[in-house]
């Protein structure tokens, strides 16, 4: 395991190359070693005086807790700034030998005609650079986003909008025979441009970029952010002409990745939206403590049950899941859509109530304008089998069973929707 210091130095080795291509690293990378900052660095636009006055938390390198790269390669991601317009970007290093399809899928979904399609929610790739120090690697330049849970959901309507966009992103990928294969909340992000109108620090997003001031933010209802799916290193594109879409895990198990995406989506809704553990750290939960459902979101339970059925062939396709979601959301009244999207303390709930009354008076809608899709083509029997067929071999140890075991926290906590 490499240290964070060496990780940052790896990106510093590529600093001149990146600046020639129009990207400037964050000034905190100069904390690498005493004396690493050079006199000419002040001419590069780095304000180190502000950095030195910042709180230690702000000076923490980005994602320092993530696994590091091998010695010859940089840490997988680093934030930077595009010199031409000052916009925030994220640099991600990808090995084509380890993940042969990641760059190609990212390039495909970020190129016309996909890049301009309204249902394509794959995170935009602004540039793809060849690593100057490693011919096996590429550096993806993507827009800077924040996690979907970096700002609390103020209302049920905000949760509905988030899920609709996430489902759209997976449907668009499945239509082009791309399986995401890692549908969890860490791989879905949101555009923070309007959510944080004054900007934010790339590591501690609740601080300003160069000082310790708490930045202001607004609720999603006031800006309705766009959500994106990150195509990860596990994503793959399949060819229906070659027959069954399947993948192997570490064990001899084999499963179809498309219904597995459906299972993971349903499990994500269950873990990260509907059910709430008594503590922030599930590993601390005693056997006597049970997670409880957030009542305003209980309308999602029938959808979760269908998406997490044990038999992959019995689960809905992503198109059918969207239709089910639209049906469930269509039954909600405006008042139900204005209920808190997450569990809140009584004082936060009181403040939320006042906000909703104010929005009702001003005529602010609890959800953005949404028109259900009408051009969805019914799948033929052959294509439905491609998306839902059960693998010939499914044994203990497959990824879905592993996910269920992890969700049950070692068997000490039971969730009502897991049967």
From TrEMBL:
Originating organism: Roridomyces roridus
Highest taxon of the lineage: Eukaryota
InterPro entries, sorted: Kinase-like_dom_sf
Lineage: Eukaryota, Fungi, Dikarya, Basidiomycota, Agaricomycotina
Protein name in the entry: Protein kinase domain-containing protein
């Amino acid at each position: 395991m490499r240290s964070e210091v060496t990780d940052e130095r790896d990106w510093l080795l590529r600093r001149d190359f990146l600046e020639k291509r129009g990207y400037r690293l964050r000034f905190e990378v100069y904390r690498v070693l005493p004396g690493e900052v050079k006199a000419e660095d002040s001419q590069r636009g780095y304000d180190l005086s502000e950095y030195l006055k910042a709180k230690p938390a702000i000076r923490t390198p980005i994602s320092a807790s993530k696994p590091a790269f091998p010695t010859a390669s940089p840490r997988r991601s680093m934030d930077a700034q595009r010199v031409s317009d000052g916009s925030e970007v994220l640099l991600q290093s990808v090995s084509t030998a380890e993940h042969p399809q990641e760059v190609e899928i990212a390039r495909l979904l970020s190129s016309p005609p996909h890049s301009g399609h309204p249902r394509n929610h794959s995170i935009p790739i602004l540039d793809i650079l060849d690593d100057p120090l490693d011919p096996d690697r590429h550096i993806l330049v993507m827009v800077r986003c924040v996690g979907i849970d970096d700002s609390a959901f103020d209302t049920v309507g905000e949760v509905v909008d988030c899920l609709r966009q996430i489902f759209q992103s997976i449907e668009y990928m499945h239509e082009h025979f791309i399986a995401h294969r890692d549908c969890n909340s860490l791989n879905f992000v949101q555009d923070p441009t309007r959510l944080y109108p004054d900007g934010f620090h790339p590591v501690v997003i609740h601080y300003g970029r160069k000082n310790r001031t708490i930045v202001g933010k607004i609720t999603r209802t006031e800006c309705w952010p766009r959500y994106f799916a990150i195509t990860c290193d596990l994503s793959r594109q399949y060819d229906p002409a070659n027959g069954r879409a399947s993948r192997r895990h570490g064990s001899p198990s084999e499963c179809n990745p498309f219904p597995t995406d459906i299972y993971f989506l349903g499990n994500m809704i269950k873990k990260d939206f509907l059910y709430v553990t008594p503590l922030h750290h599930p590993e601390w939960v005693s056997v006597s403590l049970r997670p409880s459902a957030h009542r305003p979101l209980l309308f999602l339970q029938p959808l979760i049950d269908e998406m997490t059925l044990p038999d992959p062939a019995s689960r809905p396709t992503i198109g059918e899941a969207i239709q089910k979601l639209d049906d469930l959301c269509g039954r909600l009244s405006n008042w139900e859509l204005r209920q808190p999207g997450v569990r809140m303390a009584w004082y936060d709930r009181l403040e939320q109530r006042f906000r909703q009354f104010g929005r009702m008076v001003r005529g602010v809608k609890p959800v953005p304008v949404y028109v259900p899709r009408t051009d969805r083509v019914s799948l033929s029997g052959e294509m439905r089998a491609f998306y839902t067929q059960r693998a010939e071999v499914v044994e203990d140890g497959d990824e879905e069973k592993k996910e269920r075991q992890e969700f049950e926290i070692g068997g000490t906590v039971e969730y009502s929707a897991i049967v």
